[in-house]
């Protein structure tokens, strides 16, 4: 037997000894197993039924055992064609996309700004974090309905000058006068007015994103900042060269979360419109609109994730 033949070792597969990565993957599947089982047994049949509703006129009946439906007429793709002829639906859809383009960057930037501030060492840091998270609690469930009711009553209060006390902080005339000599287009002016007057909602919808950014900031090793200070890096350079790249995965996560939250919010113009359609004989049409809306949301998420993920920095830990 030659020397080369002696050095040849047969690599047989090992059974019964999973690697660390395999054990982590197994624990991950065990963690999501209840959701997977619940999705297959509960949600999947409902999803299939809702798809069937878009191709037929159905009579839905609710009882103690759940819901039952009977098909009355089959329409094929008629409902999908009809929604495009509805100018109100397309107007609401375009309005929702326009609000999304302005709201998502504002929320992500604001939550990142607040997270960087609250990550600094200062007195009462935990109290300030709780204060910024309180709007998240107030905007959920019953508290959201109570807050919305109170805000609606406030809108009806006259401020004594013939105006409305809850119409916003600034008016279109104020911004137009400020930007009048800068040759700025009216769409940008309207966007600035909307964001400033919507500052309360931006703060309310930034709580979860702020916590995610805080978790990302606290995961950055202090040794990296110490090395940057030794090299003479300024605070501005440290943020853009260290902090921003290190939390770029959180920017992707928060962007996706904010898009989904904005699209599914009850105040979304598309959700409001479809809810008004979902009555009587229009249930099949509303279901078709919901599915088209879902496909548009999925497309927006895919485009956003594809663009942002190309610039995300992932730290290697091996």
Element layout with pairings:
Elements: H1 3-6, H2 20-53, E1 56-63, E2 66-74, H3 78-84, H4 87-118, H5 125-138, H6 141-155, H7 172-178, H8 186-197, H9 199-204, H10 207-218, H11 222-230, H12 235-246, H13 248-264, H14 269-277, H15 283-308
Antiparallel strand pairs: 1-2
Helix pairs in contact: 3-15, 4-10, 4-13, 4-14, 5-10, 10-13, 13-15, 14-15
Give the second-level CATH assignment, the architecture: Orthogonal Bundle
Number of domains: 1
Coarse shape? globular
* Strand order within the widest beta sheet: 1-2
Can you characterise this structure?
The protein has 318 residues and is mainly alpha-helical. The protein has one domain: Orthogonal Bundle (MetI-like fold). It is globular. The longest helix has 34 residues, at 20-53. Helix 4 runs antiparallel to helix 13. The relative contact order is 0.10. The protein has 15 helices and two strands. The chain has a two-stranded antiparallel sheet with strand order 1-2.
Give the tags:
318 residues; MetI-like fold; two-stranded antiparallel sheet
Q: What is the gist of this entry?
A:
This protein is mostly helical and 318 residues long. It contains 15 helices and 2 strands.
């Amino acid at each position: 037997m030659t020397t080369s033949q002696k050095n040849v070792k047969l690599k047989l597969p090992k059974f019964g000894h999973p690697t660390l990565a395999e054990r982590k993957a197994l624990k991950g599947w065990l963690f999501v197993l209840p959701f997977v089982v619940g999705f297959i047994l509960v949600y999947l049949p409902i999803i299939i039924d809702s798809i069937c509703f878009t191709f037929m006129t159905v009579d839905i009946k609710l009882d103690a055992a759940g819901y039952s439906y009977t098909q009355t007429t089959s329409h094929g793709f008629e409902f999908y064609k009809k929604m495009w002829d509805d100018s109100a639906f397309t107007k609401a859809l375009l309005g929702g996309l326009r609000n999304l383009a302005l709201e998502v960057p504002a929320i992500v930037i604001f939550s990142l700004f607040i997270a960087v501030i609250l990550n600094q060492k200062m007195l009462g840091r935990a109290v300030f974090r709780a204060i910024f998270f309180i709007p998240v609690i107030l905007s959920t469930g019953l508290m959201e309905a109570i807050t919305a009711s109170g805000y609606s009553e406030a809108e009806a209060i006259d401020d004594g000058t013939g105006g409305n006390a809850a119409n916003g902080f600034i008016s279109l005339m104020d911004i137009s006068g400020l930007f009048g000599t800068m040759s700025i287009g009216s769409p940008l002016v309207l966007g600035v007015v909307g964001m400033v007057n919507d500052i309360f909602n931006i703060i309310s919808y930034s709580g979860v994103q702020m916590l995610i950014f805080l978790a990302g900031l606290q995961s950055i090793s202090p040794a990296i900042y110490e090395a940057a200070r030794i090299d003479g890096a300024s605070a501005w350079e440290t943020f853009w060269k260290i902090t921003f790249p290190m939390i770029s995965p959180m920017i992707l996560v928060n962007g996706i979360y904010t898009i989904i939250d904005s699209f599914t919010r009850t105040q979304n113009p598309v959700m409001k419109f479809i809810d008004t359609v979902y009555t009587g004989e229009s249930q099949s049409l509303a279901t078709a609109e919901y599915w088209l809306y879902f496909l548009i949301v999925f497309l927006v998420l895919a485009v956003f994730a594809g663009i942002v993920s190309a610039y995300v920095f992932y730290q290697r830990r091996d």
